[in-house]
Design goal:
2 domains, three-stranded antiparallel sheet, 35% helix
């Protein structure tokens, strides 16, 4: 790494499938990937992924971990739904100056930059954002158990649901249900005649 540590910023985008860490400075950027980092789904594993990513980033930047931890940092993490979650993450990581919040505003900012517009963030989960001037409106992103429409998790679950509905003869077979049934064979039920 070249330049003074004070000229750098550390940014982390943590999601349900993985996280990306970037150390950005004047004319220089270093990136690493790490494992899942949804702090609501699995806090311990999320922190372990973040710590592994930080160690890898320090190594790649040829910095001590202590020097990396002193760099001002921004963490946009899946599963941070309020200040208590952010404080819990802050206490679990050795970062000295960190802003920690949900990954949702960062998703919109990353897609739109400084422009007004709409954004649909579709990954393991999903979030929809609309920005007009200084107003940001978010919808969705409440987690795979109750929401996250159009996300990877939702699409997979709906494809499996459709294949089961076809197996139960509640829906007609089609290209999607056939492809799913080939990949994940569905047992056929035998209809029985009940004798009275």
């Amino acid at each position: 790494m070249t330049g003074r540590v004070s000229e750098y910023v550390l940014a982390i985008d943590g999601g349900g499938s993985g996280c990306r860490l970037a150390l950005v400075g004047p004319n220089h950027r270093i990136d690493v990937d790490a494992g899942p980092a949804n702090v609501s789904t699995d806090f311990s594993d999320a922190i372990a992924s973040l710590r592994t990513g930080l160690a890898d980033l320090a190594s790649k930047a040829d910095l001590s971990e202590g020097a990396l931890y002193a760099i001002p940092s921004y963490l946009g993490l899946a599963g941070v739904v309020g200040p208590k979650d952010a404080v819990r993450v802050a206490h679990a990581l050795p970062l000295k100056s960190a802003r920690i919040e949900s990954d949702q505003p960062a998703t919109v900012e990353g897609a739109l930059g400084t422009h007004d517009g709409a954004e649909a963030g579709l990954g393991t989960g999903s979030i929809f954002g609309l920005r007009r001037g200084s107003r940001l409106r978010l919808a969705g992103g409440w987690g795979h158990r109750i929401d996250d429409r159009a996300s990877g998790y939702w699409l997979g679950r709906e494809a499996l649901r459709l294949a089961l509905a076809v197996a139960d003869e509640l829906e007609p077979a089609g290209a999607i249900s056939s492809a799913v049934s080939e990949r994940f064979p569905t047992p056929k039920r035998k209809n029985r005649i009940l004798k009275g």
